[in-house]
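#struct-pred
JK: can someone run the complex with nicotinamide-adenine-dinucleotide? inputs below
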Amino acid sequence: MSSLAVIPGDGIGPEVMAEVLKVHAVVEDVFGTGLKTEVLPWSADWFLEHGDVGIDVLAVRRDHAAVLLGALGDARIPDNRHAIRIIGGLRQQLELGVNLRPVRLRALAHCPLKHVTAVEDVDLVVVRENTEDVYVGVGGAVRAGSPAHVAMEVGVHSRWAVDRVVTAAFELARSRRRRLTLVDKSNAMPSAGPLWQGRFRAIAASYPEVECDHLYVDAAAMELIRNPARFDVIVAGNLFGDILSDEASMLAGGLGVAPSASYDPEDGSFAGVFEAVHGSAPDLVGTGRANPLASVMSYSMMLGRLGLREAHAAVERAVDEVLCGDLLTPDLGGTARTGDVGDLICRAVARHDKD
Ligand SMILES: NC(=O)c1ccc[n+]([C@@H]2O[C@H](COP(=O)([O-])OP(=O)(O)OC[C@H]3O[C@@H](n4cnc5c(N)ncnc54)[C@H](O)[C@@H]3O)[C@@H](O)[C@H]2O)c1
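RT: done, C-alpha cells with the ligand placed:
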C-alpha cells in the first residue's frame, strides 16, 4: 500500500482539503487504489510553535508516493517564511522543476469573455518552471530603510532547468493539439532571453510534429484575453508562468477551479506535489464560501499521474458534472457551500460503477 502526504496548511487549506479527503474515501471504496493518507501538520501554527524543527521535505519523498497540499499563507508571518520553507523546500529540494497548470472551460457560463462561444476555445496548459527565476532567494538590500534603499532580487535561469521544463512542455504538446508557445521577455532580458530561446529552438528539433511559436509576456497576457483559442501549451519561466496562469484561470472560472501539479520528470517513484493554484484566501476562512474544486482537480491530476486512470476519469467526470450544474460556490455565481460541492463530487464518483 502506498501513502499520500496531506498538508492542509493555512486559511482555507484545511477546509478544501477536508473535501478532498472525503472524495478520496469514496475513490478508495469504488476503485480500491490502496492509497492511505498521512496528514502532516505543517502550517503557520506549526511554524510559530516549532519553527523549522520537524519540517523534513526529503523524508516526504522517501515515505510517500505524492503530496496533496492545501494552501500556505498567514498574516502572522508577513515575510511568508514558513510557506517558502515548506512549498519552496518541496519544490527545490525535491527538484520539482515542472509545474503544470491546466485551464479548461467546462461550461460556457464560467467564461467572462463574450467572444468565447465554445468551451473548446479555452483548453490550454501553462507549463511553468518551478524552481528558479526570482524565487530562489538570491539578492539583498543596501541601506535598507533609508531614502537610499537599494533592493536586488536576482533571477536565476540554468540550462538544466530550462531543458527539463521545455522538454516536458514539448512532450505534453505532442500528446495534445501539438502547439507550443514559448513566453518570455527576451527583448528586455539579454541574459536569460538567449538561454530560453536557444534551448527552445534546440529541443524543438526533436519534436518536428509540434508547431512552435513565441510571444513576449506582455503580448501573451493580451492574447490570452483576445484569442484564448490560439493556445494549446504555453511554456514559461517561474515568474511569468505564475502570473499568466492566474490570468488564464479566469477564462475557465477563476482560482476556485485552477489545479496544479509539480513534479520531477526524472523521478518515477515520486509523483509530485498537487495543489490548487490559489492561496489561503484569508477573506473566505470559516465562511463556507471556498470552492474546493481546484483542490479536487489537483487530486484528480495526482490520480492520473499515478496511473490510476479509471479513478482519474471518474473524478474528472464528477467535476464536469458539477461545473455544468447549478450547485456552485459563490465565486461561480452560486450559493452552495464548500461541503455541498464536496458531497456532490462524492455522490457522482460513487455512482460511477452503477452507470
Ligand atoms: N500555493 C500557495 O499556497 C499560495 C499561492 C498564492 C498565495 N498564497 C498565500 O495566500 C495568502 C493570500 O493571498 P492572495 O489573497 O493574494 O491569494 P488567494 O489565492 O488566497 O486569494 C485571491 C482571491 O481569490 C479568491 N479565492 C482563492 N481561492 C479561492 C477558492 N478556493 N474559492 C473561491 N475563491 C477563492 C480569494 O477569496 C481572493 O479574493 C497570502 O499569504 C499568499 O502568500 C499561497
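RT: quick notes.
The chain has two domains: 1-95+294-355, 112-252.
The chain is about 40% helix and 20% strand.
JK: thanks, will look after standup
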